[in-house]
Every structure is written in structure tokens, then in C-alpha cells.
Amino acid sequence: MPNIDIKVDADLSQLFQLPSCDDLTLKDPGGLSVQLPTGGSLQAFADISKGIPTDCALTFSLMLQIAPFLASIQCLLKVLKLLKPLIDVINGLPVPPVKALVEFGEAAAALAPCLLIPTPASIIPFIRDLLCLILKVLNCFLSQMRSLIRILGPLTLQLQAAQESGNDELTATLQCASQNAQTQAGQIMNSLGPVGVLLEIAGPLFEIAGVPAITFPALGSATDLAALNSVIQTVQSITGDIQIAVDLLGGCS
User: Fold this and answer.
1) What are the residue ranges spanned by the domains of the chain?
2) Residue 242 — pLDDT band, cuts 50, 70, 90?
3) Burial class of 193 by CB neighbour count within 10 A (0 to 12, 13 to 18, 19+)
4) 3-class state of residue 14 by DSSP
5) Helix, coil or strand: residue 42
6) Can you state the angle between helices 168-190 and 225-248, rounded to 10 degrees?
7) pLDDT digits over 93-106, tens only?
8) Which one, of 44, 46, 71, lies nearest residue 59 by Cα?
9) Cβ contact 9:39 at 8 Å
10) Do 206 and 214 contact (CB within 8 A), yes or no?
11) Residue 41 φ then ψ, to 5°
């Protein structure tokens, strides 16, 4: 069969051209890091669950780390700034240099607001906001668990009926769906792990604020419908305790 050349418009011809390898090559974003004044460094995290990372994704990862770091070192920097003139004052005793005294006074004045941190007046707003944040997490958890139970409940009844009727194929399908729901419930329960850690770490701050310590109970396992209902009751109980504490602190905004 003969080949026939057909002339086409230059723009259309360009559309038929295969892209070069350079155009299709995935870009390697490399590693991004920020050197910290304390001597360490922050490394960008690549979230592979969202696909191949880009420079933008790694940059935002670093920004999310830098923001809390900067907020946490404000008082530390003021303390360090105070030490230099304090050392000069001590070394100059019994007649310290006037310049050292002036610098010490200025640094001490800047540090004064930080001295209020370990007081109830400063800690209580933080404890209230922390508990309000935990309440949101627990309410999200309860919402997702109730949705799963609404799915798992009918599945359990259907599975029982399929087993009684001897429908092996349907039984296998329903068992798989039930297992997937239980696996999802287990993952949701694991997501509450950081809540217990936060409450434990914040224990000393609760004591300063005069708020009774709140501990997160063990949730058990997601083995069946009864176990999931028990988990919901446990979380509802701790949610009620946290809500009472929040209300005593002024409530959530």
C-alpha cells in the first residue's frame, strides 16, 4: 500500500510532534533545609502520599516547621540576650561597668513579659485553647465512628443471614466488607494516639493553671460492633469531662 504525504498546517504539524524527554522528565526537587541559630537544622519532609514532591511542597513543609520554632524561641532569645550583660556585671563587681548595667536593665525589661509564663493568668488561655482543639478532634472521631457503625451494623445482620442461608459467595463478600470497616475503625482509633500524648505532656501546665489533670483512657480494640460501641461510650465520657473543664475556663470561642 503506497504512502501518501498530506500537507498540513505548520501549527497542526507541531501538535503531532512527540514531546522530548526533557519535557517529560520528572524534576528532582532535591533536599531543602534551614540552618537554625541553635546549631541544628530543619529538614523538609516529602509527603509521598500526595505524589512526587515538588519544590513548592517541600518549601511549605519547611514553613510549617519554622513558624512554631520561631514562636517557641522568643523568650529563649530574650534570656540569652540578658546573660551577656549579666556576666559583664558580675565580672565587674564590686563596681560593674555602667554600660553593662544599662544593657542589663534593658534586657531585663524586655524579658519581663516572659516571667509571666509560669503563672495561671498566662497558662489558662493556652490550656483552654488546647482543650478546645482536643474537643474538635474527639467530635470528629465520634462522627466518623458513628458513620462506620451505621455501615457495620447492617453488614453484621446481612452476614449472619448469608451464613444461615449457606450463601458462601455472599458470606465471603460481606466478611471482606466487614473486615475493611473494622480496619478503618482501627486506623481512626490510632489517630487519637497524639491526644493522649498531648494531655500527658501538658500535665505540668495543667498543674500551674490549677486545672485537674486529664488522662486519656485506653480504647480497647475494634474487633466487632460491640467493641466499637464501647469505644464510642469511652470517648463520649472523656469528651464530657473535657467539656466541663473547658466551661470552667471560659468556654470555647
Assistant:
1) 74-116, 120-248
2) very high
3) exposed
4) helix
5) strand
6) 20
7) 888 888 888 888 98
8) 44
9) no
10) yes
11) -150, 155
